[in-house]
Amino acid sequence: MFRTILVANRGEIAVRIIRTCRDMGIRTVALYDDTDLSSLHVRLAHACVRLSSGALYYDAAALVQIARDCGADAIHPGYGFLAEHDEFARACEEAGIVFIGPSSAALARVRDKIAVLETVHAADIAVPRHSPRAYRASEWEALRDAAERLGYPLVLKSYSGGRSHGTRLVREPTQLESMAQHAHSSALTAFGDDRLYLEEAFLPARYLEVQLVGDRHGNLVHLGERDGSIQHNHHKVVEESPVPYLTDSQRQDLWRQALAIGRLLGCAGACTIEFVLDAQGRFYFTEVKARIQVEHPITEMRTGIDLVRIQIQVAAGEPLGFSQDDVALRGCAIQARVNAEDPWNHYLPSPGCLRRFRFPGGPGVRVDTYAYSGCDVPVRYDPLLAKVVAWDETRAGALGRLRRAIADFAISGVQTNLPLLQRILDAPEFAAGTYDSDFNRRPLPGAEVPPEQLRDLAIAAALAYIRRGIDSSGVLPDRAGSGWHRDSRKLPQ
Amino acid sequence: MSKLSITIDGRTFVVETPPLRRTTSEIVARVDGQTVRALTPATVSPELLDWLIVDGRPYELVVDPNLRWIRSRFGLHQIEVRDLEATVARPASGDGRIKAPIPGLITRVLVSPGETVELGQPLLVLEAMKMENEIRAPRTGRVAQVHVAPGQSVALGVVLAEVE
Question: Is there a smaller number of Cβ atoms within 10 Å at the N or the C end of chain A?
C-alpha cells in the first residue's frame, strides 16, 4: 500500500480524499494557493505545499515535481482539474508515481469522446446521433454544416472536459452561432481547449448514470444507478439513487448495458457510465467518467462502500475483494449541492468570508465540505461549498431528512442557493419522483408560511432594521478622541 | 418606540418596537396593534440578527445586510422596510451605473458607448469562480461610457459601465 498520497485537488473533494487516506493510515500532502489557504483540506492533511505557478492546480509538471519532493508514491486527482488528463497520468507514470485513476492509455481512449461513442455503438448499444468530429472556434462553418446535418434540437459539448462547462442546448438554428461562441469560450476558460462536438438532444430527457467499480484482475461490478436530471445551466443540483421513475426491467437493463460498456472500455477503479433516457423510455449511452464523481456519496450511503478507498486499493494493484452478489443496494439517498451563488440574481457567484456556517446533522445526514465559520470562499474556483446527503430506508424518509437538513443549514457571509434547494425539494413533482430535465423550466413556488410565523418574521425584519441603526451609531464613541473621527461620520453606513 | 412598515412576502405589517438593548433581553413589541413578546440576541454578534424567539417560537435567521431578504427555515422571504417616522426619503437606487458585483476578470465587452440597450441585455462578461457571468443592463437606455476592457481585472464595486 502507498505510504504518502499527494491530493492534487482542493475544496470538499480534497477533504473527502484526505479523510479516507487517514482512515487507511496513509500520509497525505495537500496543496493550496494564496486564496484557499483557509480551506479545511489544508488543515486536515499531514503536510501542505503552496502552489506558486500561475497554472496552480492545473500545472501538471509542478504537481509531479511536488509529489517527488514530498516523497509521495501516489497522486489522487479528485474531479475536475487534471483528473482526466492523459498527459498528466503519463507524467506520473514516467516519474514512477501511481496516478489513482485509469492508466494514461485508458484515459487517452476515453478522452476522445467521439471515438468512445463509436466504440460503444459498434457493440450494439444505442448512442445519440453526433457530429463526426470536434470543432475549434475558428471552424464555425464546419460546425454549422454539422449542425444542419444533425438537426435541432442539439447539444454542444466540450470535447475535452466534463463538469458541464461548455455544454449548451440549442433549440433553434438561429441560436447556434451565439451559443457556439459562448460554449467555445467557456470550454476554453474551464479546460484550455475550445473544441466542441454536437449531439442530438432529447427533450425532455432524463440523465442517468451507473457507478461501476473494477480492479486490474478482471473484476467489474456495478453499485446501482443515480439520477442527475435536476440541473441548472447543465450543472447537476440534486442527485438521487435509486432512480425513482424506472421500472425494474429498465433498471436491470441499464445495469447490464453499463457493465457491458465498462468491460468494453476496460474500466478500473471508480468509473461512471452516463446515459440519457428519452421520453419513450429508450436509453442512449453518452459519456464515461473515469474518475470520482461529485455525487458519489449517494452511492456510498446506499452500499456502505468507501469509493475513494476502492480507488486507492485498485491503484495499488489489490483485487476488489467482493463480487456483484456481495453488493447490497439499501434504501434511498438524495444529495443536494450547496453553492455560493445567488439564484435570485442571475446565479452570480458569491465569494467572501463565511461568518456563520452551522451545518446540519442527525440520523442519515452527511455533509461534505471544506468550509467552516471564518473560512474564505475563493473567487477563483467553482462555487460548490458543500454537499448535503440524506439516506433512509424509503424515498419519502430520505426526502424528509434532506428537507430538514437543508432548512437547518445556516450560512451567512456569502449568498447561497439553499433557498432554491428548499423549493426544489418541496416541489410536488420532486416528491412524486416523476421529474425530468424540464423541471428547471417550471416555476418553483416557495413554501406557504403560516400567518403567525410570517408575522414573527416581520418583527425580525423590524429588529434587524433597528439593530442596523444601532450598530452604525455604536461605532462612534470608540473613535471619539482621535482627530479623524469627524470624517468617519461621513462614511456610508 | 420606532414605528415601521414591514412588507414580507407581499403582506404588510406595522411594527412598533422599543429601543434594543445590548444584552440578550426580552422586548415587548406591537404588531398591527397586538402586543408580542420577543427574546432578542445580544448585539455583540456581527450579524444583524441571527436568531429570535417570539412568544416561544424560535427562529434561526440569516438577514441580508441590505435588508432585501430574510432566510428562515421556510425559505427566503423578500422584505421591504419603511420607517414611518423618518422625515427624509431614502435616495433612489439605480442611477444607471453598473458596478462589479464580484471581483473578477472582464473577458468580453459586448457594447460600445453610444449604443442603445434594452433592459436585461448583456453588456459585459465577467469571469469569476470558473464561470462566465453576463452583466446585464439595469434599464433601457444609451450606453454613456464603458470603463473597462477585455483582460482587465476588476475589484468589487468598480464602475464598469454607465447606462443613461
Answer: C
